[in-house]
Amino acid sequence: MIKLGIERIHEYKSLFEGKRIGLITNPTGVDANFKSTIEILHEIGTLVSLFSPEHGVRGNVQAGVKLDPYVDPETNAMVYSLYGETRKPTAEMMADIDVLCFDIQDVGARFYTFIYTMAFALEACKLYQKKMVVFDRPNPLGGVAVEGNLLDLNFRSFVGYYSIPQRYGLTIGELANFFNETEGIHADLTVIPMSGYRRSMNFKDTGLPFVLPSPNIPTIDTIYAYMATCYFEGTNLSEGRGTTKPFQIFGAPWFNSKLTIEALKAYDLPGVQFRKHYFTPVFSKHANVLCEGLEMFVQDVHAFEPVKTGVILIHIIRQLHPEFQFIQPPKTSQNLFFNLLMGTDIIEKNRLSLADLLTKMEADSKRFMTMKERYHLYDV
Predict the structure, then answer these.
(1) What pTM does this model have?
(2) Backbone torsions φ then ψ of 55, nearest 5 degrees
(3) Residues of the chain with pLDDT under 50
(4) Domains located in the chain, CATH noted
(5) Which of 59, 156, 309, 315 is 20 to 30 A removed from 16 (C-alpha atoms)?
């Protein structure tokens, strides 16, 4: 039986008793009985402030929407946004707390912004001499497999800040320790580990309830698809936002499903199948326009290689569809959003053949596998 980090808090009461506590959390910050971390911390200490990542403390904000400071109606604590102009807690935000806690369910993807909210909080704790505590949770994709290319720091952004691969195979607590040491942050950090967890487990193996970590990742199945199709956010393909199956459905008004499926057969991708699908997004790209596309079915999560699958999909779709385009960068970046998500411009610039690209990704993955092992808190 797995006990989450937050469920072991009473073993670490000395960290919180008599302390003013700040908390970075969202709706995933609950124990196995859905009692919120907000409530738990309020009972053992003085909870004075909440910090909101992307999508808000209550999960009621769509991707990319910025929030102004406000008072949480349920706790009367001040809520500060860490997704907007301010991504690292400021001196003013940190002044009234002694301990900054982090409890959010990660998805195991480099481009998921919550992990950088955590990293910037570590930097703030070091800068302002505050204690940081991370309550550990499972990596939904498991803690063994590693996949993808190491981020080229020329493409550093809030969807990829450190040189890690897309699928890094660490829990959020292990990743905190990794960032804290390898990036030279050296904050006063305590990770409260889980008990009963083994790193070979995916989320379904844990038996824990799954609380969607953001509006467009409603299920565990979505996370596996997200690892393969999040890159489509940087193109004129719909990645399925505005449908009932974001990231599992993708396409465009000009998409040719038949040709794409035929081309995919040559790669014999393990653990996944595709079917032709029509859909009409109700918001986001191609809103209210009929799209042709594919629906992805991940049938064997242990065999499925999501990053490789996503790269091959981009390669095929780009070859077959002259309408395919990379989206122009936002005003705040000189890089294409696709390149920020990939952490490189190798694909966009066609710097390598597909075969050479996959070879590079495999080499990067093996290199990171060796780097991460010393930060493992759990056995296989």
Answers:
(1) 0.95
(2) 85, -5
(3) none
(4) 5-205 (3.40.50.12170), 220-349 (3.90.1150.140)
(5) 59
